[in-house]
Amino acid sequence: MRTTLKLFCLGLLSAVTLITSKAAESRDEKVLIDKNNIESSGLWIYNNLNHAIFEAKRTQKPLLVTFRCIP
Amino acid sequence: MNQFVRVRLIQCNSIDLNLFHFDYDLTFAAFFINADKTIYGRYGTRSSHKEAEQNISIESFAKALKEALKLHREYPGNATSLANKSASFSEFKFPQDYPQLEGRFQPWLDFDGQLAASCIHCHMIGEADRRYRRAQKNRLPDKVIYPWPMPDVIGISLDPAEMATIRAIEKESIAEQQGFKTGDMIESLNQQPILSIADVQWVLHQAPEPSRISAIIHRNGEKVTLELPLVKGWRRGSDIAWRTTSWDLRRMAAGGLKMRAMSADEIKDSGLAPDRMALLIEHVGQYGDHATAKRAGFLKDDIVISFDGKTESMRETEVFAHILRERPPGTRVELKVIRKGKPLIFRFDVK
Asked: Cβ atoms within 10 A of the Cβ of B244, count?
């Protein structure tokens, strides 16, 4: 029971810390974090349409282009 | 998804406006395109400020992706049907070429400096375009005032979990009169394949007034051909108040006032005449041109009962449209308001 309570408190503290740090991030920081996440995932080409068109021609694939700004 | 080359664009600096022509009030939009820039389809629809995701879903996005792949496999045999999925938006090629944005924004983002401040947001394109047109002192056409109409304006409510399946038809609407039914799947409009609600909006957005839109429908395993006649003024049932770009319309048309039409109960409780104008001022702009009405003397909670001679029941959207269609910048307008039961008159110049 005590262990469960400790884990709960630890989780709550982590959540509060996460929320506080998120709130503290400026919009610029959010964009840079997002950029890093997208680029490191390797799943998307980040903000480079010409490169994407080159890749689409090379691979004969269609393009999925998304517009999404960071709030 | 891995059958696509996926690219995420985070700003509108230097986007080709003649390719990326979409509803600039969206916060998420997607294009399915060929490397030669032929558009297979668009995705992304919004019709509410609070309920930003009520018209989109993972399910419908997945179905649209699948259909885009089918169109890609059939390309270029289907090129003719895709040709009208593109159309020029503006005489300016890039957003930063608009007078309102020129000099304020570079063609690229400043990742090493003021990053967010260097970004041309999507809504800025819509605002810059309206400002440019308004500066010509031309009357703004309905297409500019009411962009990207929802199909609801002609009586069709589409299922957000499907590409373009009708979930409800409004009684006595154009759609009902023309034979559209709940459950119909819209396959094409004006010969263009339809992958999403955004594709339906695109066809409506581009439709001249008056005109007729041809539709091919899937109904109970059969194809049915229908027509949608669009009369002059058909866009005017749309509500644009939710749009981010309407903030700038408040500056142009209403001196910075944010208003909402009062309910029948509120009108009754206030002792006002039913079926007449009753717009409650929810916010009075505080700075710059947005403070025009504030400087004229307006206060929050004033009730507008007459706007530039109009006294009939109107929504905020219709007030904007009246000014943008009928009153060039600099025109003085007179408003009658009720404040704590007493009538008052204020005047200001529209922008």
From this structure: 18
